[in-house]
Amino acid sequence: MEISSMSSRLRRCLTVTLAVLTLVYQTRLHPQHTVDAFKIEKIVFKSRFDSIRLSTKENLSNEYGEWISSRRKATQPSSFNNSVILIFPGAGGPDCFTSELQETLQSDMQELKQDNEKFLCVWDWSEFRGNVFTAAFDSECVGEGAAEALDVSSKNNQLSAKITSVHSIGVSVGAFAANAFARKYKAQYPESHVKLTLLDPFTGRGLFGPNYGRDNFGLDVDVAEQYMNTDDPVPTTNSPLPLCKVYDVTDADERNTFVPPKGESMHTWPLVYYSRYGYRRNNQDT
User: Fold this and answer.
1) Are 239 and 273 in contact, with CB atoms under 8 Å apart?
2) CA neighbours within 13 Å on the CB side: how many for 81?
């Protein structure tokens, strides 16, 4: 217990130290120094990030493997193609609006008679959420673990189940998980069609990366899109991402009838817009 307490105090001390260094040097950082700073953050929290990645890999691999097995029992094919849709909520975890999005996607699958061909999952990663300094990294590790999970599950399952398309959806800081999952899966399986959808994405990573999302979200995937508004109070969410097709829904007519739940802000509006209107209007690329 004493060693654990010392370790916890050391991590807090390192976090505070990094924060102070940020305040002193952030405006002077050369891009190469920024990269070095990212490495420092990853070294400091390495054991934490490795644990998140491994846990996600194991848990999602089991869940996806069970879905594959149940489909095999139902249809008994020798092989089949399927698609994967993963929704990564924000730091607070799934809520009524991510449930609404899941229902929208499920309804669309049923209408197209694809509910046995698509693995749809809202992945709750909130247990791994750290503090404001690590949340983006935590989310990113979740996405990397998710990509590894599908790779392992597909290879270990006796049934040949080829994933032909992936749709990765990220909400707020869940954008880091969605982006990491999409990029890593595309790197593993270049022949798969990978789409990335970011709903009011948080784009600052750690202490030294206020523009990380701007420079990285949308890289190396087939389709990338961002739904945003420009007037919510959450920092780093109100600017267009140059690597994404941008849908600015700030002045959408439908917003006139939307009232955020108590305790929420218009940060929720891009997710709500996508669930109720944007998905069906713009879903031409998957």
Assistant:
1) no
2) 6
- What confidence category does residue 154 fall into, taking pLDDT thresholds of 50, 70 and 90? low
> Cα–Cα distance between 100 and 206 in angstroms, integer?
30
Residues 6+ apart with CB under 8 A from 52: 128, 138, 141, 142, 145
Q: Which residue has the higher pLDDT, 117 or 277?
A: 277
Cβ-contact 270, 172 below 8 angstroms? no
What lies within 8 Å, CB to CB, of 131 at 6+ separation is: 15
Please give the model's pTM, rounded to 2 decimal places. Answer: 0.85
Check pLDDT > 60 for residue 114. yes
Query: Which residue type sits at 183?
Result: R
Q: How many helices (H) and strands (E) does the chain have?
A: 9, 6
Is residue 196 within 8 A of residue 180, CB to CB? The reply is no
